[in-house]
Write a structure and sequence with these properties.
The structure is a homodimer.
Chain A: H1 14-21, H2 24-34, E1 40-41, H3 51-64, E2 67-72, E3 75-80, H4 82-88, H5 92-105
Antiparallel strand pairs in A: 1-3, 2-3
Helix pairs in contact in A: 1-3
The structure holds a DNA duplex.
Chain lengths: 106, 106
DNA sequence: GTCGTAGTACGACGGGCATCGTAGTATGGG
DNA sequence: CCCATACTACGATGCCCGTCGTACTACGAC
């Protein structure tokens, strides 16, 4: 079974989180995940970049502590680390998602 | 009189704001300004980088729409664009500052 | 005018990042 | 076992970013 490294909650750095969120593609992923209760495979989010670039963005998000990723079969399932982020930086993720949602409507 | 360009409220982009905040020095500036009601000259914030690097960071913050800068005499006064950011991205700045403050205490 | 203070402009440099293509590695299904 | 699917690893490329030093400009005080 393939396992992926995730930072512990106490190792999540604000700068890394903000950097991870400061990219349109990654923000897109985060918003997509925010609108889905279940875990989402990478292949379900169409990022309009090559697959290898996609892999890169998912890794940045995971290593920053923004998302969690687990393998199931050939798929890699993604979900937001809402609880962890909220414990560390209360309300931050929610406000970023709200801001991104608002901006994407204009 | 020297005048500086600031983006209009409607031109402020979330990605740029997040990118501007995703740097320790710039976050330091923002936190400093958040703790001060009055406008603060660049020279009052000790960034532990060279002056030219400091100038660079202030420009990034200004061009992203995070701070406002005006000249007064030889000084350049900085302040947060709280109202503008709050109108665009409600609560975002406050949550980032809270997160940065919390993290800096650990 | 001269001087000091505050910040700028510019060019350089090194590192990191987004991007890609190609080749490769799991995993599950027939 | 073979194949398709889903994602990865690796190397390359080009751009952007943080950093610096040096030379410069604006302003106020004397």
């Amino acid at each position: 079974m393939r396992v992926l490294d995730h930072p512990a909650v106490e190792d999540i750095r604000l700068e890394s989180v903000l950097h991870a969120l400061a990219d349109p593609r990654r923000l897109e992923v985060v918003c997509f995940l925010a609108n889905s209760d279940v875990e989402v495979p990478c292949s379900e989010i169409d990022l309009a970049v090559s697959k290898s670039t996609g892999t890169h963005h998912y890794r940045v998000l995971r290593e920053a502590g923004v998302i969690s990723q687990v393998y199931r079969g050939t798929a890699k399932l993604n979900s937001l680390r809402r609880a962890d982020l909220d414990a560390l930086f209360p309300g931050l993720l929610e406000r970023v998602i709200a801001a991104a949602t608002k901006q994407s409507r204009t």
